[in-house]
Amino acid sequence: MSVKSFSGFSPILGKEVWVDPSAVLYGEIKLGDDVSIWPMVAARGDVNHIQIGARSNVQDGSVLHVTRKTENPPYGYPLIIGEDVTVGHKAMLHGCTIGNRVLVGMGAIVLDGVVVEDDVMIGAGSLVPPHKRLESGYLYMGSPAKQARPLNEKEKAFLSESADNYVRLKQKYLEEQA
């Protein structure tokens, strides 16, 4: 795997983490336990930090980046991903905060300063513009993303099920690579 130091920071990996050998992680990145990072993911914690919570997964071709610290905002925008999050194929997350039990659909783009509360689905191909807040319990879709409808109970349950499925899958990969 390509886990590399940058500017004195090295990625920190939790227990039972899977990082595909084709993924690239640089700098100040912290992965919680049971996280999985799939093929061709690029994550750069070079000008701010990235944190990914336990049991979350980042799927093939996704890009994770941050915004540097400046006068406005002085803290910049780190990338914070909560627990039990599924980030779909080719998603782009840039300097945003993603809550727990969130599904970021394939090809979605989530920009600086966005806050996604817990228990949210972001539809495939959606664009979430800077500084938007996505309220808990809803599906958001479109470009720009808009609240489409409340999630039903089956969809809410799926958010954790998706994360659980990826924990089981990454465990098979770890076992086969041992």
UniProtKB/TrEMBL annotation:
Short name of one Pfam family: Hexapep
The organism's taxonomic lineage, starting at the top: Bacteria, Pseudomonadati, Pseudomonadota, Gammaproteobacteria, Alteromonadales
Name of the protein: Carbonic anhydrase
Record-linked PANTHER family: DYNACTIN SUBUNIT P25, PROTEIN YRDA
Native source organism of the sequence: Agarivorans albus MKT 106
InterPro entries the record matches: Hexapep, LbH_gamma_CA-like, Transf_Hexapept/Carb_Anhydrase, Trimer_LpxA-like_sf
